[in-house]
User: What shape does this take?
Amino acid sequence: MDVNFAGFGLGAVVGLILALTGAGGGILAAPLLVFGLHLSIVQAAPVGLIAVGAASALGAALGLREGIVRYRAAALIGVTGMLLAPLGVQLARLIPNPPLMAAFACVLGWVALRTWRQSRRAAVDHLDGTLARSQLPCVVNPDAQRLTWTTPCAWALGATGAAAGLLSGLLGVGGGFVIVPSLSHFTNVTTRGIVATSLAVIALVSVGGVAAAAWQGAIDWRIAIPFAAGAVAALLAGRQLAARLAGARLQQAFAAISAVVALLLLARALGGIAA
Assistant: This one.
């Protein structure tokens, strides 16, 4: 099969997953490239990051148009992530492929478990009753409709950006699976606002990781361009479908697929280590 056609098709799968599951769905981009085009994690990571970054930028632009992106929070998290992403890219080039693949499998397994648990919970307030509104580090002022900035808030968001950036460069993931839970835990922003803000952060963080990988000549553009084009096209097409399919069953399906892919990655990694 032509690599451009295959890349576009795999990218479309990523875009559809992003449309249906939100910011964390991009974590499956690199595994699809590993199994679909037989790339190593080091080769797949920057290609996946380009696609996730492009699709996230589109989603963030739509969110900005609707006025639901917390752009100051996104800027702080994103800039911090951009600074750490090149370090992740450098570490990925130093770590052998089997251990790196095993690490990715563990992260993906954790995402699967967390998503499954979320799907099983009843619809509750995102604070989960554990924190009063005044105890959160980052609270939206009801009058100005903006986050009230404090030192704990800045530290919480900065740490979120650092973790997302490092993982983005290291594994080629957007970091939505870190950003969304963090914003849910530290802020009282609405769910739609959290997802839109997360997409904006992913778009920013991806720039740092992609730039570092491109500088090191680690990107196969013959695969990256059609893969990213497929992701963006499917994200646009899948937005209407997402409105009708979103729900617990969809989360459970994503969790099950993620768990299977994690096991396959772990098996391949252990096979590589044993060899």
